[in-house]
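tl;dr need the bound structure. longer version: we got a ligand (iron/sulfur cluster) that a collaborator sent over and nobodys looked at where it sits. i said id run it. heres the input, straight from their email, havent touched it
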Amino acid sequence: MVKVNKNKCIGCGACAATYSEIFHMEEDGKAGVKSGVDAKKNAKSIKEAIKNCPAEAISN
Ligand code: SF4
């Protein structure tokens, strides 16, 4: 299950901007995974988001 480590996330917004079907920014200024995300269907995007996150905050 894809998740964002809030302790690592620096709130840059890149994941939410690029993969808005998966991530959104939350009230704490950090990214979060949208509810009901189909991990299988979004596997490629999730992989890219993990690779592109500057803080290595996304894991699967
Ligand atoms: S790309 Fe990484 S650091 Fe930037 S908002 Fe998303 S999880 Fe946080």
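gonna send this back to them w/ a short note. Residues 4, 9-15, 31, 53-55, 57-58 surround iron/sulfur cluster (CB under 6 Å).
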